[in-house]
């Protein structure tokens, strides 16, 4: 099979028939063998009924997954990835803001240009400039700096992948925003970008609020930390815990030494506990000990993890 199109959706009943017909038209024009996997993320409207009606007309090409409740886009993609069988996997949103006309070129970039993953870039957007465009630019600038991937729109829903890429990454929580980074960490570094058309929403309203930028920032920090120290937590916690403890210890020695010298010279000196430096030093020692202990416990957990030696082997002869 040439292409698997994965469409995660939540309350998009009105747009589904048009999206299906559009995808079907593009596939027929280019003689692709394909499947469409609709992942209904706990919709409360008629989305599932619409999908079943479409499947009744085209059981060969339409497959569907229905969640009992709303879990989010990452779980929807995870389940869609598990089911996909096409050589190239295309993900796109169900709101008709992603154009299926982009599929042939995305397919060509993967199959002919050799990209592991191609991410769409909605260079010209029709969203609200203040609430979406500006925060999106700031978010993407931060993501580029942290991940090292020079992508302008990392969170674009329209992407193309080699099948093996989606089988070797795990999308969980809200990590769908960083799939290119997950792919890079799994050893698939040939990542490209394509300018794609962004269309105005025809039906309903956006399901994402400004909180996605806060969650996205925290997820980015988590991914960055896990990538660097996930298998060796002691390298982070142990190092900085030791540094903090030593600084606190040196400060305690200095404070105590000043007291001893003052006494030896017959100079009246304040109590050690009267100076704020004593408490700062003590706090540094306590925090340093806690961080070191956290690293030690993390190392024990890491060593007992069944996935500790799960490495991505590209080839074995």
Key structural traits:
single chain, about 325 residues, Spore Coat Polysaccharide Biosynthesis Protein SpsA, Chain A, 7-stranded mixed β-sheet, 10 helices, about 50% helix
CATH domain fold name of the largest domain: Spore Coat Polysaccharide Biosynthesis Protein SpsA, Chain A
Low-confidence stretches: 311-317
Order of helices and strands: EHEHEHEHEHEHHEHHH
Note the beta-strand portion. Answer: 5-15%
Reported CATH architecture of the largest domain: Alpha-Beta Complex
Quickly name the level 1 CATH class of the largest domain. Answer: Alpha Beta
Q: In total, how many domains does the architecture comprise?
A: 2
Number of helices: 10
- Rounded to the nearest angstrom, the distance between the terminal CA atoms is 27 Å
What is the average per-residue confidence, as pLDDT, rounded to a whole number? 85
Biggest pleated-sheet summary: 7 strands, mixed
Sum up the overall morphology in one term. elongated
SSE-based structural type: alpha/beta
CATH homologous superfamily classification of the largest domain = Spore Coat Polysaccharide Biosynthesis Protein SpsA, Chain A
Q: Could you please describe the fold and organization of this structure?
A:
This protein has about 325 residues and is of the alpha/beta class. The protein has two domains: about 5-230, Spore Coat Polysaccharide Biosynthesis Protein SpsA, Chain A (Alpha-Beta Complex); about 235-305. About 50% of the residues lie in helices and about 10% in strands. The protein is built from ten helices and seven strands. The protein has helices at about 15-30, 45-55, 75-85, 105-110, 130-145, 165, 180-185, 210-230, 235-265, 275-305, and strands spanning about 5-10, 35-40, 60-65, 90, 115-120, 160, 190-195. Strands 3-2-1-4-6-5-7 form a seven-stranded mixed sheet, sandwiched between helices. Helix 2 links the parallel strand 2 and strand 3 (about 60-65). Helix 9 runs antiparallel to helix 10 (about 275-305). The two termini are about 25 Å apart. About 35% of the residues are buried.
């Amino acid at each position: 099979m040439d292409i698997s199109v994965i469409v995660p959706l939540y309350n998009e009943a009105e747009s589904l028939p048009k999206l299906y017909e559009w995808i079907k038209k593009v596939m027929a024009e280019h003689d692709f063998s394909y499947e469409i996997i609709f992942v209904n993320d706990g919709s409360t409207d008629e989305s599932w009924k619409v999908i079943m009606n479409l499947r009744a007309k085209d059981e060969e090409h339409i497959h569907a997954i229905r969640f009992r409740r709303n879990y989010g886009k990452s779980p929807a993609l995870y389940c869609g990835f598990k089911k996909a069988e096409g050589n190239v996997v295309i993900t796109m949103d169900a709101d008709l803001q992603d154009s299926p006309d982009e599929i042939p070129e995305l397919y060509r970039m993967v199959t002919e240009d050799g990209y592991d993953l191609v991410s769409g870039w909605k260079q010209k957007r029709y969203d609200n400039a203040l609430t979406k465009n500006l925060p999106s630019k700031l978010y993407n600038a931060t993501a580029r700096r942290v991940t090292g991937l020079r992508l302008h729109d990392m969170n674009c829903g329209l992407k193309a992948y080699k099948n093996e890429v989606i089988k070797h990454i795990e999308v969980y929580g809200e990590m769908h925003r960083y799939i290119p980074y997950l792919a890079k960490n799994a050893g698939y570094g040939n990542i490209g970008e394509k300018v794609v058309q962004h269309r105005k929403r025809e039906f309903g309203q956006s399901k994402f609020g400004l909180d996605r930028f806060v969650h996205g920032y925290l997820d980015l920090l988590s991914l960055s930390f896990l990538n660097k120290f996930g298998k060796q937590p002691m390298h982070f916690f142990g190092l900085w815990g030791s540094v903090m403890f030593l600084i606190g210890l040196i400060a305690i020695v200095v404070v105590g030494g000043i007291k001893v010298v003052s006494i030896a010279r017959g100079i009246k000196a304040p109590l050690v506990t009267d100076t704020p430096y004593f408490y700062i030093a003590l706090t540094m020692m306590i925090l340093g000990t806690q961080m070191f202990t956290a690293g030690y416990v993390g190392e024990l957990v890491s060593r007992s993890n069944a996935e500790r030696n799960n490495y991505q082997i590209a080839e074995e002869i």
